[in-house]
Design goal:
596 residues, alpha+beta, Beta-Lactamase, Heat Shock Protein 90, six-stranded antiparallel beta sheet, five-stranded antiparallel beta sheet, 18 helices
Length: 596
């Protein structure tokens, strides 16, 4: 097996990627080049132009047929109704005939009206009357109709504005007008026949027509006025523009133009009698592959080879990158702090070797971190234990002075109490080097301390210790309460006149052990409270024990965890309450576990 491994070593990632991807890319390029060569030269553009011309021609026929239908309606109204009617006696007949023709063409016609040359409305369907302030004789379409009696005149698209009919308000129309001969009795005179063509019926024929990939068509009058455009609203709002000036000068045929820096192919076709022009525009980019045979062929060939290339490259990339991805997951787990996570060791030689190296490194890091953490915790515990084991000489000297003074003043009983309290104080402070003691001993320790300090400060304060029997056997950290009581005495009671009170409580709540140290002293501001938790020795070293409130909090968290510790509530002139939270653990069970 070793000989085989030496004869057939695992290929490197660089060699594998270079070989697979180079060969596959060359093969795909060669095959695509053979099938695509000669198929692209000019076919796409020629086909699109041919299609565009066919579309324009078809649209022109449709629009021309539509307009001729409207013109035939105009002839029917004139020659079949108006010319044969005497308006002096047959106005009702004219109105009835108008209604019949309107009903047959109402999908494309909005209004039909007959006006005298003086602008008087003779009959109208479905409109009832002209607007009160409307003088049609001044309108351009009215003048054009009377000025050219032999022609039909088509206006530009506009909102219907001459008739007072709520149903026809705000409708876009194109007005067809022509001069007609009106008979009234024995006299004849000129009049104007008006037909409002519904703009929507014309728009319906032109909407959604596309030339090539990006092309469109629009409709202009002989003077270059815009009749229809797929982006009509944008142009009216001056958000877009169109090459209308050039369009007015185009004759039927194909043109190349440059508009706003873009090269465009333009096809122009006139619409019969009206002089309107249908203009098809295809940007240069629209001559890309269309829906012709070439496009279908190219799509099929390209899709086929892309499919093959995707399969080959998917296999190759999976073969090469799967081990790297697995190794990356392992490294991400290490970055997230999971040093005991399993490290992937597979794939090529390099990946296998790298995985093994990372695994060894992770193990070494884990070992070093465990050693560092253990050493750091041990060092901190030693520092705290050393600090708490120190006995401030000033406290001892002051206590001894009190004892001497009592003896000299023949207060032997009180001196015995102080000596006894001091002895118990030292015994619990030492506790055979143990850091964990029962709650009973911690309360006894602070009781002895308070007794000594009460005699020293000559009864400036009273104290009270409250604890239920159920908490006395629980485990507690040694010397937690003394620094808190020191702060209460030196900063809360020293300047009081004898009304000071300190209450120490121990109780169990929701599975946790709680201590409370309450005083009615001077209290503290928020800044002073925060300083207690940041300064190591809040009590002056020459007066107190030197064990700061912050150190008590750190010791608790070091021994029991970050979720435990102490909190402070205080207001100036309102006193201070310091609460300690510890896990409720039986001292006896804890000692048995340590011995085991």
């Amino acid at each position: 097996m070793r000989k085989r491994k030496r004869r057939f070593p695992k290929a490197s990632i660089r060699y594998t990627i270079f070989t697979y991807f180079t060969v596959s890319a060359l093969v795909m390029i060669f095959l695509i080049g053979i099938f695509m060569y000669g198929r692209l030269a000019g076919q796409t553009a020629a086909t699109i132009r041919e299609e565009n011309q066919m579309v324009i021609n078809q649209v022109t026929l449709s629009v021309d047929s539509y307009l001729r239908t409207i013109m035939k309606l105009s002839d029917s109204l004139y020659y079949g109704v108006i010319k044969n009617a005497d308006l002096s006696t047959g106005a009702e007949t004219v109105n009835s005939e108008f209604s019949l023709l309107y009903d047959n063409n109402k999908d494309s016609i909005s209004n039909i009206a007959l006006l005298s040359k003086d602008g008087e409305l003779l009959t109208a369907i479905p409109a009832a009357r002209l607007k009160s302030d409307m003088d049609v004789t001044g309108e351009e379409w009215f003048k054009n109709a009377l000025g050219r009696p032999d022609n039909l005149y088509f206006s530009m698209p506009h909102v219907q504005y001459i008739f007072d009919n709520s149903e026809n308000q705000y409708r876009w129309v194109i007005t067809l007008t022509r001069a007609v001969e009106i008979t009234e009795g024995t006299s004849t005179d000129q009049g104007v026949l008006l037909i409002d063509i519904t703009y929507g019926s014309l728009q319906y024929m032109l909407d959604n027509l596309v030339l090539g990939n990006q092309g469109y068509l629009y409709l202009v009058s002989s003077g270059g006025g815009l009749i229809y455009h797929p982006r009509m609203q944008m142009i009216d709002a001056n958000l877009e523009t169109e090459n209308l000036e050039a369009a007015a000068g185009y004759r039927d045929g194909n043109y190349q133009e440059i508009f706003e820096g873009e090269k465009r192919d333009v096809v122009v076709k006139s619409v019969g009698y009206t002089g309107w022009k249908i203009i098809g525009v295809t940007p240069a980019g629209g001559f890309s592959l269309s829906g012709m045979k070439t496009k279908l062929f190219l799509i099929f060939v390209v899709a086929f080879f892309l499919f093959l290339l995707a399969i080959v490259n998917a296999f190759i990339s999976t073969k090469i990158t799967a081990p790297i991805q697995e190794l990356e997951k392992s490294v991400n787990a290490l970055e997230a702090g999971e040093l005991d996570a399993e490290i992937y060791m597979g794939g090529s030689y390099e990946i296998h070797h790298l995985g093994r190296s990372i695994d060894d490194m992770a193990k070494r890091i884990q070992t070093l971190m465990d050693d560092i953490v253990a050493e750091h915790e041990s060092k901190r515990k030693r520092e705290f234990d050393t600090l708490q084991s120190q006995i401030n000489p000033h406290f001892l000297y002051n206590t001894l002075d009190i004892i001497v003074w009592m003896i000299e003043n023949e207060q032997k009983q009180e001196a015995v109490k102080v000596v006894t309290a001091l002895a118990r104080f030292f015994r619990i402070s030492l506790s055979k080097g143990k850091s964990i003691i029962p709650v009973r001993d911690e309360l006894e320790h602070v009781r002895n301390y308070l007794m000594i300090q009460q005699m020293r400060f000559k009864n400036k304060f009273i104290y009270r210790i409250e604890a239920k029997e159920e908490v006395l056997g629980l485990a507690s950290l040694k010397l937690m309460l003394q620094p808190l009581v020191e702060n209460a005495i030196y900063h809360g009671m020293e300047f009081m006149d004898g009304d000071g009170e300190i209450v120490v409580k121990a109780y169990k709540e929701q599975g946790q052990l709680h201590y409370k140290v309450e005083d009615n002293g001077l209290g503290m501001t928020k800044e002073q409270t925060e300083s207690l938790m940041t300064e190591k020795n809040h009590v002056a070293s020459g007066r107190g024990s030197g064990i700061g409130v912050k150190n008590v909090n750190e010791r608790i968290r070091l021994y029991f965890g970050e979720e435990y510790g102490l909190s402070i509530e205080s207001e100036p002139d309102e006193g201070t309450v310091i609460e300690i939270c510890l896990p409720a653990i039986s001292y006896q069970e804890l000692m048995e576990k340590e011995q085991a």
